[in-house]
## 1
Amino acid sequence: MKINSQQDLSQIYDLAWGLGVLIKKWKLLLTVLFLSFILSFIYLSLTKKIWESSAIVTLAEYQDLVELRPNIMMEDKLNREAIDNFLDPEKIYIRYINLFKSRDLQADFISQHADILKLEDKKKNSRSVQKQLKNFSASLINRKNLFVHQLKFRSDTAQIANNLFQKYSKKINDKIKQSTLLSISAYMEQLRKELESQKKALVKYAELSLKHEIKKSDMASQIAKKAQIEKPLQEVGSKFLFPIDLGRPALEAQTALMKTISDPSVFHDKIIKIQSQINSFNDAKILNHQDFQAVRFIDEPGFPLKPSHPRPVFITFFIVLFFQVFAASLLLFKQIYLPSK
């Protein structure tokens, strides 16, 4: 216990001695502090400022996407689900993030705006364009939620950062909108062609059936004429191959009437149903909604109010701390190893 007390007293003495040395040199330390502030100011003034425009995005609302769904007759549940699959918020969100990260799309965008960025070489594969790709970033806010990202774009000025971020976001949004519309249109055209094929088969079947029934009715009228059946009979038709129970006059009238039929749908009701579906496809219009949003912005991209780099407070604190520690260490070193006589 006595030894420990002596060690503690020795440490306290050393600390007090060190503080005493520094206090005696307070003017020097104050001068170093002042010079540190000046140095940090000069560094911050000369260092290139980087401005960052950012936004936080998540899944779009389904009601915003479903407006692109065409208003058509869709009795088949699988077809309805296929159309809705094109408008799945999760799939559209993943496409949006992948497009935002696409180096090829980024290079194409930078190349298109090379004049704004004051790039000497506008080619996509040039070093000046490729160097700009590091200014794009997309990162998860929380790894447990795969559908919340922070998107960023950095540039030399706040105006360029904000302007190009807005344009790049719109470019991706428009690209997804157009591809979604094209996919839905292509699928609708495929369904329309399938219905046309079904209709064509049914019409052909109806025409053959009509010819068969005309021939059958004509033969029945000839049989009725030979049998001298002039009036309708009761409970006879089901017993013969040809229904002669209507009587010769009625059968001849039936045959003549069937020969005038030009619309096969009169003979087959399903043709009318399919044709109405085809008409709905022909009349369907997919509106090019201007307010389409592939993702929902939790935090809208705004005009950056201060540069993201360098950080004035951090830089100033680091420079001041470094030079104060350095000056204090020199003073203590000189006092210990080079004491004045």
Note: The mean pLDDT is 79.
## 2
Amino acid sequence: MEPSDSEKQPTASLNIGLIIRFVLSQIRRYFAEFIGIFMVITFSFYVESKGEDYENRMTYEELLKDIIKELKLVQSYTLAYADQNLHIEHIYEQQLAKWDLNDDHIFFLDPKDPLFDEVHYLPMSTYTDLRPYDEPKLLFSLFEQGTLEFKLVSHATQIIEGLDEGHLIDQILLLNRQEKILVDDFKQRVKNLWTRDLGIIDLDDPHFWITHRTYIQQDHYLRHNLAERVDLWHELNSVLLDYEQALSTDIAQLDSINVAFENEGYFIYWQYR
């Protein structure tokens, strides 16, 4: 005997309810799985991003240390160059002061003189020597690439980019070029005038400076050339000291930033202090 319609209705309703509950449970299950997968992917991207930031930060710290080390080399070179330049200036300043003396040895440097060195025993024989400023090359080009890791610490970047502007360096190089012009003029003077008046020229021969002492003293252009060069050396010393002071200030600032880097604490990629 078949069940009546009234008996079938509760059974159908039950089946529909079961289907709905099953569908809802499946939706919840897949939604939970989706949320889980989404969180895993998002977290993996987050960790990867933190890892890149950490690697960039470590790269920046190492480059900053290299820059500081190289700036200290430039500072040492500048101080040594300034000391040598000052020594040269004093030698030729003394030569200029003796110019009018009636003494066959005015173009000699007395071995008892505190300024004496064997290279400049005959100061005017080494007058054509040039010592252009040639500081060690730096890593500034790395910071000019503009990649993100070099912009993490804006203050350090500003200091480094400011160093590369080179206003004081431009002054030093300009004075070097002006000095070379004076030396070239002296060479032309010897070639075009002295050889005509004196014959064979040997600037390294002490007897040459004794024999032709009066002629050289009366060469007013040479005296003027020497006076200009002494003034250039004096100006160069002033700029060199300014540059060394600027380097000292920048090194101190970069050192403080580097110390802050070293004091940071990390657990894997996460900074905790």
Note: Helices lie at 5-97, 140-143, 154-163, 167-198, 206-211, 213-217, 220-263.
